[in-house]
């Protein structure tokens, strides 16, 4: 159950605070994180699922469906969610997905 919708700026700020809990890497065009400690140690996450997990809304797989569910828990818009998935999965390098990928890389310091 979410309390309020999260803005894109709040998402990027929350994402930048996850650098200690996750080891972030870029493989080709994919941006993925690996959980460093806890019961989920070694599990792969996407930027959206990582923020959802760090906010205490549950653990979701870094798939398209998992990203959508995590984004709903955070209160992110569906348009931004699609762009965030494209950015992290590296499925396209056009339009808003490219902009979001740059912002995610900037927030993570990659």
Structure notes:
The protein is α+β, with helices and mostly antiparallel strands and 110 residues long. The protein has one domain. 49% of the residues lie in helices and 13% in strands. The protein contains five helices and three strands, in the order αβββαααα. The chain has helices at 8-16, 47-54, 64-74, 78-89, 95-108; strands at 22-27, 30-35, 44-45. Strands 1-2-3 form a three-stranded antiparallel sheet. Helix 1 (8-16) packs parallel to helix 5 and helix 2 (47-54) crosses helix 3 (64-74). The N and C termini lie far apart (32 Å). The mean pLDDT is 87.
What can be said about this structure in brief?
This protein has five helices and three strands.
Which class do the helix and strand fractions yield?
A: alpha+beta
Main β-sheet description = 3 strands, antiparallel
Kindly state the mean pLDDT as a whole number?
A: 87
User: What proportion strand?
Assistant: 5-15%
Biggest sheet: strand arrangement: 1-2-3
Shape: globular
Helix content: 40-55%
Order of helices and strands: HEEEHHHH
Measure the end-to-end span. 32 Å
């Amino acid at each position: 159950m979410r309390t309020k919708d999260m803005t894109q700026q709040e998402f990027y700020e929350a994402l930048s605070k996850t650098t200690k809990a996750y080891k972030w890497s870029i493989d080709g065009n994919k941006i993925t994180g690996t959980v460093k400690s806890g019961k989920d140690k070694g599990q792969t996450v996407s930027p959206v699922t990582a923020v959802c997990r760090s906010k205490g809304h549950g653990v979701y797989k870094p798939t398209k469906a998992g990203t959508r569910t995590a984004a709903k828990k955070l209160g992110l818009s569906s348009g931004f969610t699609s762009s965030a998935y494209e950015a992290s999965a590296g499925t396209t390098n056009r339009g808003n997905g490219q902009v979001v990928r740059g912002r995610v890389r900037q927030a993570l310091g990659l």
